[in-house]
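User: Hi! I'm working on a homework problem where we have to compare a predicted structure to a textbook description. Could you give me the structure for the chain below?
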Amino acid sequence: MLQPVAVASKSLADYTHISGRDLISEIRELAEPLRDTRVVHISATAFGGGVSEILYALVPLMRDVGLDCEWHVIYGREEFFNATKLLHNALQGAPQSLDEEQWATWRQYNEMNARELSGGWDVCLVHDPQPAALFELVPEKARGWVWRCHIDLSTPNPHTMAQFLPHIQSYPQSMFHMREYVPKGMTGHANVVPPAIDPLTPKNMALSPEDAAFVCGQFGIDVDRPLMCQVSRFDPWKDPLGVIDAYRAVKQEFPEVQLALVGSMASDDPEGWDYFNATIAHADGDGDIHILNNFNNVGAIEVNAFQSHSDVMVQKSTREGFGLTVSEAIWKARPFIGGDVGGIPLQIEDGVTGYLVSSPEQCAERALEVLRDPALGKFLGRRGKEHVRMHFLMPRYLRDYLRIFHELREA
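Assistant: Happy to help. Predicted structure tokens:
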């Protein structure tokens, strides 16, 4: 058996005051004919990264509206996760592809997990490249199959995509964050479904300014000085080194500024520690650069506090599947600067709900604008929060999944 993940309970009714009665009513109408449908989500890890955060909210809400929903995590060792990290990077455009031994490792672990997957599901939702071969290996174990892609496939390594595409192209339904991510050759129905955040989790619930400042102070932040912050994995695509460069340019004109780089280390990301150490090296002992992760006791509340207290939030990605940390930060009504890549422009209207940038220099310029004009930051934050409320909260995401389940039933 694959490893089941225990999740807390949630009530859709608790979201009514945020998302509105019309959307909640639509969800209940969609869910009623699906009552007792057996659904399983399959992912690579139960912690670290956006996929697991989404599932900790989505699975309980699916149960609350009447689905018989579970979440199972595949089995893998370091050799498998080394190969899948390389696969992940290559599918996002990195030049290095997997060698034959690494492809064989990926296939071997998919075959092992396919044998361990229990049968009898109405819908099996397979998340990302790690377990993507399950459908072709054991299609009889579920009546309906969905491959959910959480990464940017707009310009993949051609050699890698040519080898990977046969494993995903025949899924009856697939889900991508943007139309540009749908690879040519998908024979099933490809759905464009941006992800969403849960506004009621500890990471996203309202924190008072006093509580946010208190938490940040515990990590050495001078709460009376301006703070720039990026929350993300330590990953070359998230460009923490570029954020440090932008901070240094800001500091030349705003010497009191501080920088926090806050991230979590995931079990399926073995190179994360290497890049974490490279980030520390690039900081070069600057006492105003605070580099923190979940091994420093940085959890959901702490991330919330850093986002809520920051004067400028940054996500200077150079490639990005979607970047939920953007919506998380904007939900706290903070001024936001993001890389002009992937799903970030979906969440930010440049100059209206935040800023889009393409270099450390542009990032520094925009940060200085906000730091010099706090009223501008408040304007961007208020507009951004309403945009997130309308488009990127969990009830909308649940509705989109239910619509796809109806299509699978009717197929």
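For your comparison, note the following. The chain has a mean pLDDT of 95. The longest strand covers residues 121-127. Good luck with the assignment!
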